[in-house]
UniProtKB/TrEMBL annotation:
This is Outer membrane protein transport protein. One of its GO terms (cellular component) is cell outer membrane. Pfam families: Toluene_X. Keywords: Cell outer membrane, Membrane, Signal, Transmembrane, Transmembrane beta strand. Belongs to the OmpP1/FadL family. The lineage of its organism: Bacteria, Pseudomonadati, Bacteroidota, Sphingobacteriia, Sphingobacteriales. It is a multi-pass membrane protein. It comes from the Bacteria. It is found in: Cell outer membrane. The keyword S-adenosyl-L-methionine does not apply.
Length: 406
């Protein structure tokens, strides 16, 4: 039982790392084109995709978008015909950007607020993995002021400071029961802040554009997170209350290279390659304010590996007002065998996207997108919890954004 109780606490912030929680829903135009945007100049979402491109934007603008995320996952335990499904809950990643600079000026200032990490899932309290996870609500909100400078007609650079506020609310069952036969419960809840930066360079030529960007690691510290336990009275001394924990979470850096090709004035083609430096996540350590013989500080290896994703997309302007978009991509998992968990049942994945943009008036645009993502089936036995079985996961993400530009 002690092994299970220690594992219960050791896994708390791991939810922030798996590829399944790196949502990266940075902008509706870019989503519609397969999440490409590093080598393009489209709108204020360049603050996220490549701040070097912001100075090339022809107008000032304010925009905001939301992408409700429907996460559908199923688990079939090894040696069983039973299949468990997560509950129908909707996460709401969002993005908002503002870009301003003097008319015909060589610089622009931008501000972005977006959610590159997040998740919402609920497996309930009667499935075989309830001692690993029952429910999870994770949010990471980045705020990024940005400055971009056009050095010449063909090249611009930019960079921004990143402030992150993250929060997590997680529940698990504890393998102890009272007189009513119900399992004990643990709720782990907390928030923290972190800091980083984002920089990029953008190149423009006739019929061709290219960009390189880098988003730094953001080390987020959870200090004073709360741990709540519901256990029989005979065990309460082993779970002192109130109790808190401290931990540091290194959200990984990302290097991106992108290209835009323009065969005609109506057609845009794009390619992005992204490399995420997940290998910074080697171990997970927790320091609890109050310890007992059962509740000890934890040090748990993770040994994640760096992972890449490949994205392609296209846009066709059917008229001066209407643009149609399609795209897709393939992403390699960062989670090694033996470390897959129900918080993020990760595996290699592919996805398809589509979208459309329409000019409502001279100053207002509306953009919509839709994404279908398939996480490949993966049979695993977790080396710490011994949870064994096959995960099958699909994700559906509609989205909409409104832009005012002048």
């Amino acid at each position: 039982m002690r092994r299970l109780l220690l594992l219960l606490l050791a896994l708390v912030p791991a939810i922030a790392f798996a590829q399944g929680f790196q949502v990266n829903l940075g902008g509706q135009k870019q989503i519609g084109m397969g999440h490409t945007g590093t080598g393009l100049v489209q709108d204020g979402a360049s603050i996220f995709f490549n701040p070097g491109a912001v100075a090339m934007l022809p107008e000032n603008s304010i925009q905001a978008g939301i992408s409700p995320l429907f996460f559908k996952s199923a688990f079939n335990p090894s040696g069983s015909n039973t299949v468990y499904h997560n509950a129908n809950k909707v996460a709401t990643p969002f993005n908002a950007y503002a870009v301003w600079g003097p008319k015909n000026g060589f610089w622009k200032f931008g501000l972005g607020v977006y959610t590159p990490f997040g998740g919402l899932t609920d497996w309930g309290n009667s499935w075989s993995g309830k001692y690993v996870l029952e429910s999870l609500n994770l949010k990471a909100i980045y705020v990024q002021p940005t400055i971009s400078i056009r050095l010449a007609n063909w090249v611009s650079i930019g960079g921004g400071f990143v402030y992150n506020h993250g929060s997590v609310d997680l529940t698990r069952a504890i393998p102890v029961s009272g007189a009513d036969g119900q399992d004990g419960q643990a709720q782990l809840k907390g928030g923290g802040n972190g800091y980083g930066w984002n920089a990029g360079v953008f190149f423009k030529a006739t019929g061709f554009t290219a960009g390189v960007s880098y988003r730094s690691k953001v080390k987020t510290t959870i200090d004073g997170g709360d741990a709540f336990f519901t256990v029989p009275a005979s065990l309460q001394a082993n779970f002192p209350q109130p109790n808190t924990f401290t931990a540091s979470i290194p959200l990984p850096s990302t290097t991106s290279v992108g290209f835009g090709i323009y065969p005609t004035n109506k057609l845009t083609l794009a390619l992005d390659v992204n490399y995420v430096h997940w290998s910074v996540y080697k171990v997970l350590a927790f320091d609890y304010a109050k310890n007992t013989s059962t509740l000890q500080d934890t040090y748990s290896p993770r040994n994640y590996k760096d992972a890449a994703s490949f994205r392609v997309g296209g846009q066709y302007k059917t008229t001066d007002k209407l643009a149609l978009r399609v795209g897709g991509g393939y992403a390699l998992t960062s989670v090694r065998d033996g470390y897959v968990t129900p918080e993020a049942p990760d595996a290699n994945r592919y996805y398809f996207t589509a979208g459309a943009g329409y000019k409502l008036s001279r100053h207002f645009d509306i953009d919509a997108s839709f994404e279908f993502e398939k996480v490949l089936s993966r049979n695993q036995t977790n080396i710490e919890s011994n949870l064994s079985g096959t995960f099958n996961t699909q994700v559906y993400i509609p989205g909409v954004a409104l832009t005012y530009h002048w």
